[in-house]
């Protein structure tokens, strides 16, 4: 009986300890998630603009530029030394460069410009998230 209780206690301590270590690791480097949340915010603002049919060219350009510059933070902050990951991040940068250059001024042209961007987000998430 006593041995069984001790084993249970040991397990509980192990579980608590593991979750604390995981939390500490996540807290030590908040940047990867911060970068993704920033991308998510700007992509969300653009989606919202399309949904409400309020596609102001200047606002669109601002969010596209923020997406583009934030996408350059992915590789240095994630520290994943995998060619596939770097390629996926580069792919996103390329699609965003093209979206910025297209300078969409209508909801329809924004939707066209964002399609390859969304695909670039998705294809990396499928493999690495
Ligand atoms: C090169 C790979 C890559 C690309 C490209 C990428 N992501 Fe991510 N994303 C990840 C990974 C890996 C995670 C999981 C991060 C984690 O859990 O620590 C993630 C997680 C997220 C999350 C959830 C954050 C959380 O708290 O778990 C959001 C939101 C997100 N990405 C948005 C985007 C958007 C929007 C784009 C495109 C504009 C994008 N991502 C492009 C790799 C990528």
Automatic annotation (TrEMBL):
SUPFAM superfamilies: Cytochromes. InterPro entries: Cyt_c/b562 (IPR010980), Cyt_c_II (IPR002321). This is Cytochrome c. It comes from Rhodanobacter hydrolyticus. The lineage of its organism: Bacteria, Pseudomonadati, Pseudomonadota, Gammaproteobacteria, Lysobacterales.
């Amino acid at each position: 009986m006593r041995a069984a209780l001790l084993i249970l206690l040991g397990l509980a301590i192990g579980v608590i300890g593991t979750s604390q270590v995981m939390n500490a690791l996540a807290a030590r480097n908040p940047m990867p998630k911060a970068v993704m949340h920033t991308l998510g915010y700007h992509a969300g603002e653009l989606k919202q603009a399309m949904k409400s049919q309020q596609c102001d060219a200047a606002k669109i350009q601002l969010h596209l530029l923020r997406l583009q510059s934030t996408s350059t933070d992915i590789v240095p902050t994630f520290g994943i030394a995998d060619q596939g990951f770097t390629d996926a991040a580069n792919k996103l940068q390329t699609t965003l460069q093209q979206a910025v250059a297209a300078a969409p001024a209508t909801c329809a042209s924004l939707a066209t410009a964002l399609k390859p961007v969304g695909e670039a987000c998705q294809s990396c998430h499928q493999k690495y998230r």
